[in-house]
Every structure is written in structure tokens, then in C-alpha cells.
Amino acid sequence: MASRKSLINVHRIIRSTLISRRSVTPAAATRAHPIFRNRVDLRARFFCGNTSSPQNLDIDLSNEEKKRITINRLLYRSKQRGFLELDLVLGNWVEENVSSMDETTVKSLIHVLDLENPDLWKWLTAQEQPPEIVSSNPVFLALHKKVMTNLNKHAAPETRAAAGQPWVKGWDDFKRGRDAPISGNQ
């Protein structure tokens, strides 16, 4: 099995060096190699380096096909972040609201999706204060309202840590016994 994998890798390396040595036009590459038949833009579709101005994104919702593609990309980005809590919160919220969004709201959603997972989670759960740019985002405000409503409905505020303090605590913070630590779950 290992020899087959190594042969496949060697074959891929040889093919990639042969392709890179040729100077072919994209049309010739499409005919020569069927893997390039459906040309995909590998750059990030919704990347925005400057999160302060949502106007520099090009969102095209002019026809149904482009709108469907945009919605599917937003759903994927919101449900596949790699942070389970945010996958659930963002994914459900986007699924409920994305069909009624206009272009400016989609841009605001993209800026929320561009935020880092730990920071976004801390801001949504009110563990830390978000920056002014984030707190003025209408999508962030709606998400924050939903998260805080659910937190207040299902968990009393006394059970959560104070702002600026670590939020997750051990399940057995107060152990009793001869060899047990004084506190914590070590």
C-alpha cells in the first residue's frame, strides 16, 4: 500500500513539473488536462483585507444562479468554521436569514465571517467587548442578540463568569478527598 501511494505521489510530482515547464495558455491547458475543465478561482471569494469598509466587496445578486451560488458559499463558510459552537450558532442563523438578505447585509455577514473564531465567540457571548467596527455591524448585532437571548433563557447569568474572566471552568472544581487538589480538575 505504501509503495502505491509513493508511486502516485511521484506521478503527481512529475506531472506538475511537466505542466509548469510548458508555457501554455489557459485554453490549451483546459483541452490538454481534463482536471482543469471546470476552471475554479482558487483565490478566496469573499476575502476582505480591510474590514472597516464593506463597500469594497463585489457581490452580485443580479440573477437567481449567482444569488444561489453566493448563498451556498455563505452557508458553507458559516457551518464549516472548525469551531463547533460557532458552526452551530452561525450556521443556523445564516440558514434562517440568508434568503432575505440584500447586498449590504451580505457584505456585513462576510465581514463577520472573516473574523477569527476565538475573538468572535468571546464577543458574541459577551466575555469581551468587541471593537467599534464589529459592534456597529448589523449582522453581528443580530447574532449577539440571539446568542445572549439563548444564554439568558437556558443559563442563569450567575453561572457564567464575569466579563474579562475565563468562561469555561472545570466540571469538578471542588474535589474533596485526601489526595485531591484544593481546587480545579487537575
Strand fraction band?
under 5%
Shape: flat
Major sheet characteristics? none
Structural classification:
mainly alpha
Nearest-angstrom radius of gyration? 24 Å
Pattern of helices and strands: HHHHHHHH
Number of helix segments?
A: 8
Portion of residues within helices: 40-55%
Mean pLDDT: 74
**Distance N to C terminus:** 43 Å
Instruction: Tally the beta strands.
Output: 0
Low-confidence stretches: 23-55
Any overview of this molecule?
It is a single chain. By secondary structure, the protein is an all-alpha fold. Helices cover 52% and strands 0% of the residues. It contains 8 helices and no strands. The chain has helices at residues 2-21, 26-32, 64-79, 84-97, 103-113, 117-124, 132-135, 138-154. α3 packs antiparallel against α4. The longest helix has 20 residues, at 2-21. The chain starts with a helix and ends in a 32-residue tail after the last helix. Mean pLDDT is 74; it is low at 23-55.
